[in-house]
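Anyone else keep sequences and structure tokens together like this?

Example one:
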Amino acid sequence: MELLTDALYWIGAVTVAWVSVSTLGCLLNGIRVWIVGNGNLMRAAKLGKWAVVTGATDGIGKAYAEELARRGFAIVLISRTQEKLDEVSKAIESKYNVETKTISADFGSVDIYPKIESGLAGLEIGVLVNNVGVSYSYPEFFLNIPDIDSAFVDFFSRGLDAEYKSKGIIIQSVLPFYVTTKLSKIRRPTLDIPTPERYVKAQLSTVGLQTQSNGYFPHAIMGWVTTALLPAKLLNKYVMSMGLSQRARYLKKQKQG
């Protein structure tokens, strides 16, 4: 009986110690990422003169271009419409007094890459924000297809980071939840649905600290809840209901003209 009591005591002690150390580690890591941040890492003087941003004329992409320009980077803007590129380029040069360059490219095509390669030739590129995406104007069925694409990009990004970190190259997979953009069809910001500007400013502070990041503290909490606590069946049901609601609103608006 005494042997059993001793065994239970040590099992309990080890369990409490493990939980305490794990909790402390999570707390310290959270302070490091979300409060301390990466300091002045995201500056042109540290990384290189140019930042390249795809999907740079709207939403999160435009916010990245503006925030990186504010931090001293010259900006290469890549997007589909030259008129919008010129407009954003002029605004950034005027406001932040940095050099810009534009490349018009439709990522729905497959023959754009020689043009992009030529446009980037000879530039000292310190940052690439691969933000561009192709999607329907509203949530479409067969959500498993873009989900598979997103999973591949996430896994591929983390794999590249593991391979190239020793060469001084930082690669981060960014997994945001909803942000107030044209793509999300959400216009009113809240604590958990930030503006693109607020999201980008928070996300850039996590570069170099997390290989995979939700980029914004409330999104990190949501990510932890959905992956660690919420049953997959319930999560899928919630995502489906959100998608169906957005789809219905969009189609209704289209019918109304």
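And example two:
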Amino acid sequence: MCPGSPRCHAWGDDAAVPVAGCGLCKRADRDPVTFGETCRQDALCIHENCLYHASGLIQRGNDDEGFFGFLLPDIEQELQRVAQKMCCICRQRGASVRCQRRRCYRTFHYPCGRERGCVSQFFGRYRSFCWLHRPRQRARPARRQQPHCVICLEAVEEQPSYSTVFCPACTGSRFHRDCIQLLALSALHFRCPLCRDSENFQAEMLRLGIKVPNRAEVWEEVEAFQDLFQQQSSCDAGVCHCPLGREHSDRLGTHHFCSSIAEDIDSWDCDICSAAGN
């Protein structure tokens, strides 16, 4: 984030939680799973997920401009646009999300939609669908035993529903929507916990409205520390006598002969480490 740009933070930061609610949904909830992060500038506070699914908003800035690339003048204009739009769920004004099904005119607040069983997708055009037109999974053959969530091991519904989702690659994995969403937000490798499928599983979860973070930045951070995991592979003695060269060594860091170490010694400390231990 560039200096002087609006602040974005996770709800977990209690010291920075604003008193006012989100300008779009009017809620001041802290749940990061439902609302994502929150951006604020002066008296304006906006949930990340409400921003992405406001039907009249377009990202016209870079990631470090405005709120997640949504410019402040555009946000103000969207707040004015939805000021008189009625939520079909809570019957309050300010509904910014519209069902993308053709000829469906239902509008709702983002969190109201989640509570009613609407689906908002976190990829592509970030489309949202009401509870009647949301993406659905095909029914599966009934099982003899009571099915359970692979993640929390609690009971789930027998057939796919808004709260119960299935892996498309295997027949045995069922998940609570909340459980699989928590896994998607925390896992470095998001895949089916049972069959380990990744490509088909991720595509289906995205279609059903599961938010799967882009892990590209995480991989860059991991790769930045790869040197810390590399084992010693060369002889560091002052004079190496090995005819094959310094690189012909093991993880101990030196050849026995080069360091004048007795044959029955399996490990040792260099002079610096020995002095530090005294």
